[in-house]
Structure formats: C-alpha cells, structure tokens
C-alpha cells in the first residue's frame, strides 16, 4: 500500500513497519482502540482482535509519540502519556475540533456518533442568508485530441483505496477481473472492438507517452469519448507532471489516452 510520497520525498526516506487496525494494541493502560470516520460522517471505534504479526511491532501512535518525545522531551506535550492511553489524544481532539463533544463517551456507544451536518440537521448553511448558495464554473478544456479518449481511474466495489479485497465490481457488472477498460459501445464499434478483446492503452501529455499493455474491453454505460480503468493498475498511465490547480494532485480523472490492438 505504498504511496509515491512514502518513497520519493527527498534524499532519504524511512519506512517504519507498524501494527494495523486489525491487530490487538496493548499499551501500559490496557488494550487500546482508535476511532475512524466512515463515508456517512459517523465516527466509531476500531479495535483489533488479531495477535500482532511480530512482538516487535509498534502502533502508529507509539511510533509518532516516541519520535516526538525523543525530539522534544515532555515539554510542552506529554508524548509518553499519550502512548500509555490513547484517550488523552481524543480529549485533545474534543477540545479543538467542533462536533466531538463527549468524545470518549459517544465513541464507545454501539455504532458511534454522527458528526454535525448542517444540510442534514437543519437544514442550516454557514452563509449570510443561512441558505445554500450555488455557483457556476466553466468546464475545463478537453484533454483528448481527435482519435483519443479521456480516461478516468476509479476503484471497484471490492476495493478500499489501494487495498483490494476481491476482483469483483458488482455495481458495474464486472466479475473476476481488474485489468479492464470500460468503454462506450459506439466507441467500441468505431474501433471494431468486441467485449473481451484485449487492447493496449497509451497516455499522452506534453509530448510524453506512457504505455500499458493487455487490457480487456468491457462495454459500459459511459459517455462517448470516455474510458474508465481501475487504480492502481492504471497508475502507470498517469502523467506525474499533470496536476490539479490548488490541490496539486495528479489529474487521474482526466487523462488523454489512445487505444490500440495489442502489439
């Protein structure tokens, strides 16, 4: 699950193994848990149940607090105390972040708790009128030239970020495969392609090309001129020099590509 920023940050990089959330995290005050927020804005506890892969593994909290203590000592922050009991960290979050009142009590409840959501709870919007405001933005210029497609990368149903739990994507009707390219049927007809055909994909940006071979074509309800692939399989096609304004993130949803038969 390494990201590029884990490896390419400068002249040196440290890769520190640590316990995962599925492993039992035993500290001085007893078993620990962390809290996570799901896609619906619900904060709930996450407690591991598996024996750690190694007795030498440390938790993320232990590693970060250990580095903090080694660097700064115990003033002005009690690093070692927060390694002993993670509840202290949640207490600090409660003091700083709105919506985390009675954090320790509410996160221990079955199902956790909802974070504040103005449109859902009110509806209330933090504007001068208290109402939602809509803005209109111009569409960006197309990245694909004649004969090319605009590719977006997505994750499948059986995937969480770069963790792949299975090879199915039931919402899109894909089963047992990930190295696939979703295409509009009219585009497939133009290229004389049929479902299951293998193709090569080449991305284009500022005169540079990147190639990825042997993708299986899957017809899909997708606008003409657009194709869709899964990441991280298609990451090799993403031009690192092409980034979004402001966020500086790769333009993984807008990549000019061409599709051809396998060489």
Outline the low-pLDDT stretches: none
Quick one: biggest sheet? 6 strands, mixed, barrel
Structural class assignment:
alpha+beta
User: Averaging pLDDT over every residue, what do you get?
Assistant: 93
Quickly count the helices.
7
How many strands appear in the DSSP assignment? 13
CATH topology of the largest domain: Barwin-like endoglucanases
Count of distinct structural domains: 2
Order of helices and strands: HEEEEHHHHEHEEEEHEEEE
Strand order, sheet with most strands: 6-12-9-11-10-13
Which percent range describes the beta-strand content? 15-25%
* Second rung of CATH, namely the architecture of the largest domain: Beta Barrel
Radius of gyration using CA atoms only? 24 Å
Shape estimate:
globular
Given this structure, which CATH class of the largest domain is correct? Mainly Beta
N-to-C CA distance = 31 Å
Can you give keywords for this protein?
single chain, 263 residues, alpha+beta, Barwin-like endoglucanases, six-stranded mixed barrel, 7 helices, globular
Describe the overall structure.
- It contains seven helices and 13 strands.
- A hairpin with a 2-residue loop joins strand 7 and strand 8.
- It folds into two domains: 104 residues, no CATH class; 112 residues, Barwin-like endoglucanases.
- It is globular, with a radius of gyration of 24 Å.
- The protein has a six-stranded mixed β-barrel with strand order 6-12-9-11-10-13. It has a three-stranded antiparallel β-sheet with strand order 3-4-5, with no helix packed on it.
- The model has no long low-confidence stretch (mean pLDDT 93).
- With 263 residues, it is α+β, with helices and mostly antiparallel strands.
- The chain is 18% helix and 23% strand.
- The two termini are 31 Å apart.
């Amino acid at each position: 699950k390494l990201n590029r920023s884990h490896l390419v940050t400068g002249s040196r990089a440290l890769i520190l193994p640590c316990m995962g959330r599925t492993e039992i995290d035993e500290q001085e005050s007893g078993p620990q848990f962390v809290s996570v927020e799901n896609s619906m804005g619900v904060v709930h506890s996450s407690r591991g149940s598996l024996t750690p892969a190694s007795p030498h593994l440390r938790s993320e909290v232990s590693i970060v607090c250990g580095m903090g203590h080694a660097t700064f000592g115990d003033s002005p922050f009690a690093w070692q105390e927060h390694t002993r009991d993670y509840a202290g960290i949640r207490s600090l979050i409660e003091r700083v972040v709105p919506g985390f009142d009675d954090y320790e009590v509410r996160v221990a409840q079955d199902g956790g708790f909802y974070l504040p959501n103005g449109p859902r709870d009110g509806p209330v919007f933090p504007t001068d009128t208290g109402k939602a405001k809509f803005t209109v933005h111009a569409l960006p210029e197309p990245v694909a030239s004649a004969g090319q497609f605009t590719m977006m990368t997505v994750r499948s149903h059986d995937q969480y970020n770069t963790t792949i739990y299975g090879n199915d994507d039931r919402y899109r009707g894909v089963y047992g495969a990930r190295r696939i390219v979703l295409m509009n049927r009219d585009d497939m007809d133009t290229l004389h392609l049929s479902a299951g055909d293998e193709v090569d994909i080449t991305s284009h940006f500022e005169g540079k090309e990147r190639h990825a071979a042997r993708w299986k074509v899957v017809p899909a309800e997708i606008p003409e001129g657009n194709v869709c692939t899964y990441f991280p399989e298609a990451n090799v096609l993403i031009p690192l020099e092409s980034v979004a304004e402001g966020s500086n993130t790769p333009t993984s949803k807008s990549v000019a590509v061409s599709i051809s038969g396998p060489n």
